[in-house]
Structures
1.
Amino acid sequence: MDFIVYILQSKKDNSYYIGFTSDLNQRLEYHNSGKSRYTSRKMPWKIVYTEKHKTRAEAMLSERFLKKQRNKEFYKRLIEKIN
């Protein structure tokens, strides 16, 4: 099973949300359903970046690295690189 680190972008205010999952479609549906306290305020969300990892530990490290950046310009450059 692969684990996917993802960045979502709010269509409401262009803010970012970073997480990881083994089922990206289900996770996006969760964020856009209003069930998450944080993401419900900024719905709807779209996927703007993904990366696959073979283990949960690798995905957690990557997620932690991305969250530590706390820099919109960094995220924009990362997203532009894959597009």
2.
Amino acid sequence: MNETIYKQTVRALFEGRATAPQKSMILDFLSVPENQELYFLWLEEWELQNPQIIADTDPAYFRLIGKSIAPESHTPTPPATPRNWFWLMGIAASVTFLLVVTGYLFRDSILHKKYTTAYGELKSLVLQDGSRVVLNANSTLTVPRFDFGKKSREVQLSGEAEFSVTHLPNNRRFIVRTPDQLEVQVLGTEFMVYSRARGSKVVLNKGSVQLRSLKNKDTKPLVISPGDVVTVSKQGSLTLSHNQSVAAHAGWKDHHFTFQDTPVSQIADQLNETFGVRIIIADSSLSKRTLGGTFKAETADDFLQVMSDILGVRIIPGTGKTPETYTLTY
């Protein structure tokens, strides 16, 4: 992507001189989430440089209909006629329509900011209220763009993250919501939330949090204490375990994987979540074998080599497939 060309094209849109191909180019540019952040940065920069825009209506109209403008002369510009105003109203209506359509299509990007991580990537964030977040691989955190901490502190998480929430003088609650309708409410504490296709899990390090499943109305809110781990079923039921090792659940921050008699089939699921690889287990007896211990791996190949050494299995990489595929066999 040539950022300079896109920036010039976006500025042309702000100034009302973008052509139809340029507008199409901008819509393609905005279809990529990362580019939406650039768009708003350029908009803010342009607004600061142009605090007041005085429209030159006749040249704008001629540019709009594709006609050339006569060479500049020193003859005073005649006063606006009804036809001039008609042209101006038409241009204003077109611009208003474009703004409405853009606002509708990108309303979520306008109101929210998304932080994402790729497979195998970790990312540390500091939110507007001072709270800190560490995002695990293949995760997305959605945060309100305006007045975060003043009016609300609600975020949405898909994936896995550790939160260190700052307590505010106004006692504003911090709420994490997940795709499976789990709601985690806190004031100031440290905890981890896991939310993927296999289900959700909350691990509390410090303070206290309240969990509530909006999917199952029969499930009462649950308040947990440090060392507690809560797993959420697909039906929304909450299962509480006390006195768990928080460090074992937080190892991903250092690229550590901790297992305790974990079946190979579940390990394969975790590798898919973290690295985006597909694991084919050739033998049903192999899928039931278990693995225990803590292992450091920053790539799928690193971990698969460990599995090969410990379990005595062969790892056969696929060829030309997406996602990257590996077969485990004896």
3.
Amino acid sequence: MSSWSIRLLALVLAMLPALPALAERCATDDAGETLCLAKPAQRIVTLSPGATELAFAAGAGEQVVAVVAYDDSPAEVAALPSVGSHSRLDLEALLSLEPDLVIGWISGNPAEQLETLESLSIPVFRLEPGDLSGVASAVERLARLAGSEAVGEGRARRFREGVAALAERHAEAEPITVFYQVWDAPLMTLNDTHWISEMIRLCGGVNVFGDLPRLVPRLDEEAVLAAAPDVIITGGMGEEDRAWLDDWRRYPELPAVARGNLFLVPPSLIQRPSLRLLEGAERLCERLEHARAQR
């Protein structure tokens, strides 16, 4: 082989590690649309706290250049500029950042503003995972778009393994009835299609309103009294806000009140679709185990 051929072969071999980064990257979002990027996204804007956490979990944190109001996790987001709130975007500020990927939230962001971004050739990837599997999948898909597959796939795998371990640990647990309170006025809960109900089932719990047709049903207090749940759980209005739980003490005949089974799980761990749902599920299972011991 000539020296020229050797140098050419060496050049080709040296380029091989870079070839995957040059390949087109495609992923299907939660709206069913497939988005393809010519190269990994380098300037990402996330338009909800959940989207932000998922992007960082996917290993794309260093590529996130802006977030929206009320983003609080991970700690690095405090240093990032805001482009408005999830419900009202500052499109001028967003466009000035020249993003090559915007991660939107289907039910949280104004559809017309996301469509405006797309009309300006800004790639938009819409998320809204509905269950624990969807959360892990979102991390993997974002990692593919950001070129951080090794990180994202590893974290998604550990999340799935943690969920499976909890399911196995509580597979034979004695069923216990649960009312999950989403809001107080009007009183609201969740049916069995929501990931919080999936977490309740994971821990051997039974959602007393799981069969209702609406995802977020409205109730009255009489319905809760009639259901007589063994446990009442809420995320409240803050990480340590137990006010809603204390309100139920007006009904000492409720099994959950009589047995002291009024539990708070911080909303950031149970109401926001991120990999931290695993920690939330672990806390939820601990509380249901405590409640079983009160019988």
4.
Amino acid sequence: MNKLPSRRKKATSAASVEQKPATDSAPKNISAQDKPASATIEVVAVEVRELTDQEQNLRLQLERRVERAFLEAGQALMELRDRRLYRSTHRTFEEYCRERFGYSRDAAYLKISATAVYENLQKFLPTNGQQIPMPTNERQLRFLAKAELEPAVQANVWQQAVEQAGNKIPSGRIVKDVVDKIRESPKVPNPYHIGEICLLLPKDNPDLRGKTGYWGVVTHVGEYSCTLQTWDGDYTVKIEQMKSLKLLDEDCFFMQQLCVRLRQLHQLASRDEAVDWLLQGLGKQAKPYLSSLQAKLLAAVEREYKIEWRQQK
């Protein structure tokens, strides 16, 4: 039986013929794109509504919260450290900050130090109606916190940095430049002298934790620091972390002798807890005398431990 001629090929060829004009037009499209016609774009203006009084107040409140965020963090860290509120879970404050907040030791103490500087600025910046921008993060205060400057000098540095920044909040680099210039200027001599009796002011120094109210004898005077000898050890502190009792020479001599006696008791390898109570009490009594009972108690403890004491002249 003869097969009917197939028409599939004809149909296919016809389709291919019909598609040809489309492929032929492609170059024309490309050439049209090479020479695009100019177009007009209409821009619609969007009206920006002014803030209402309520929105403006809310904005100011939120901005203040952002600005004070680092200050509140530093204050909280300071209280956590000073009251040892980490002691139930961590051995040291540094371990606690690292595991709880992800802060390194330097980062945690920078926040605390910056908080102390901020509080100094609040106290010592002029309040004659001039609005001076305050810091908004601890990085702006990094170099002020590290510099050994008096609180009044810190305020002066910040004021100069604000002026250099065009009466805006200065960057840490600007603050550093001002600090460097002040340090290059003639240095103010250390006001303390060897043999002077001073109080410890711990402030932001972690090494002085729990030493508030301790008195000691100045045994070394440096450019920006002193070594203070107390009943339980020697402490090298910045000059702003100590305060002179301004005693007469004979009163200083009495306190020097008393410090020696207390240190001898503290150095006893094994001593009764009552001795520690006496040491802590007298070590915080910044007065150039002992009451009759205090003198008797001290002498009795010295006899108990066979410590002979002869007052030097």
